[in-house]
Amino acid sequence: MFHPVAPFTPQQIVYLEANLEQESCGFYGRLYAEVIQWIPQRGMCWVRPLFWAKYSGTATDPQTDPQVEDLRQASDLVWPDHAFQVALDTETIPLLMQLNPSEGLIPDPGQQAIARQRLNRVMKFFWST
Question: Using CA atoms, how far apart are residues 20 and 12, in angstroms rounded to an integer?
């Protein structure tokens, strides 16, 4: 399938959204990631996870500031491109500011293990939908 205009470009921030009704009523979460490469021939997008944000309320009516978990040291993902939405700067920058800058810069085996566990837990939401 040929796309005349690329919907995703490298370094663009995108997100996957999940309804967390199974976990607890009235919550949803977003996995924010940086686009590494869009693969139009396969309908896939290669992304690098940045963080998981868990909100109470609904996507159209969030009721609290989100809980943010750092995923910068987790593994990259290749996921269907139709599932991603482009993130707005105004929503993403305040969330990025909550991350500890030193944890994402230098690889640390302990932090990598924690990030992989978090990403594994988050991806279970997307596999079940």
Answer: 25
For residue 58, the Cα-to-chain-centroid distance in whole angstroms is: 17
Distance CA 75, CA 57 (A): 29
> Percentages helix, strand, coil for the chain, rounded to the nearest 5?
25, 35, 40
Residue among 20, 71, 15, 77 at smallest CA distance from 46: 77
* Chain segment 5-50, per-residue pLDDT in tens: 558 999 999 999 987 665 555 678 899 999 999 999 999 999 999 9
Contacts (Cβ under 8 Å, ≥6 apart) of 123: 31, 77
Residue appearing with tokens 């009516």: 61
Instruction: Strands of 6-125 (E only): list them.
Output: 13-19, 27-39, 44-56, 67-70, 77-80, 85-86
Structure token digits, residue 127: 């596999």
pLDDT (tens digit per residue) in 66-102: 889 999 989 999 999 999 999 999 989 999 998 887 7
- Decide: helix, strand or coil at residue 82: helix
State pTM to two decimals: 0.82
